[in-house]
Predict the structure.
Amino acid sequence: MKSICAVIIATCLFALPSFAAENQRVPWDRVSGKVGTIDKTTGYKIVEQNLVQPPFLPAWPQVGPKKPRLIKVTLTVQEKLMEIDSGVKVWAFTFNGSVPGPMIVAHVGDVIELTLRNPTTSLMTHNIDFHASTGALGGAALTLIDPGEEVVLRWKAIKAGAFVYHCAPGGVMVPWHVVKGMNGAVLILPREGLKDADGNPLMYDKAFYVGEQDFYLPQDKDGNYKEYEDSAADFADMVEVMETLTPTHIVFNGRVGGLTDENAMKANVGDTVLIIHAQANRRTMPHLIGGHADYVWPGGSFDNVPLKDQETWHVDGGQAVAAMYTFKQPGTYAYLTHNLIEAFLKGAVALFQVDGEWNRDLMVATRARGQIDGEAEFEPKSCPQYDRIVCRRLKKARQPIESMR
Ligand SMILES: [Cu+2]
């Protein structure tokens, strides 16, 4: 009996130091210090990332410092009534008030310290699943918080790529929260920056983050989109529409026209642009009309060799994919999903407005528009009621662009 007790005590004494050492190697359970100081548990410098509204990314270096850092970010839940098309409103669930939620940028090896807040203005319990992270349902199991609560989660970025994050409170709440807008993206850059297949650096001048959102909005018997009194009231009706698997709207940056007209993304000829396209719930097929993707990282992983010269690429549901393109001509470019029904009838179209000099070597109209001999002049009819916007744009496109001749 004595000898058994001795073995148990010896085992405990032996095991305790190794358990403590294990905890020291994974010190995620300590609160970090102030920005600019060194975090005692990781030895990493603490930096704060100021998150910005999409389609923009936080100002962040493409090549990381030699040593990893501890990056502090804060996401605050906002349940808010948003207009996603003229007169069409939905009670969105958001991170920091935007659909999609803001982009977080880090380098491989960095530790992200997220403070997630769910204020008492919320009606629902929320959390966050980072596809870029490892374990605990992407952090969802450690971050479920009721209104009035906050939580701090640390996770280490060990995979390079573009990744989705989203709320995942369990059961039918998961798709309901995601299609009410509660998703965003993370960009984990390789520490040495992006590279082509031969290991040459690929740097970008600008980066844009296109978050695609499918909405499933209930309609009344007359076909009008219904409005609800609070963020929870649409649940039963919306789930009914969700079960059809047919979105009523598919939009970029939270609304029809979220990235067109005055919201168009801007660049200059010669600019290399990184476009991160995120879709938390369904597949999509980005395409840049009048351009290409010079590089696409398949599946969103920067550890994959980038595909070159893609006309259309694809993003799976629950995925973010980065593409890179250097603009070679000025003008307006449509960036859309090349399911053209989804683009033109559901809303999934964005615009790039590019300034610069027209390159006649790449394209030229060698004969200006003119009448065919003997043909009567075309009399355009008035724009049909159902197609006012497209018709107006087509008429605008008919105006001659002198620099292209
Ligand atoms: Cu949620």
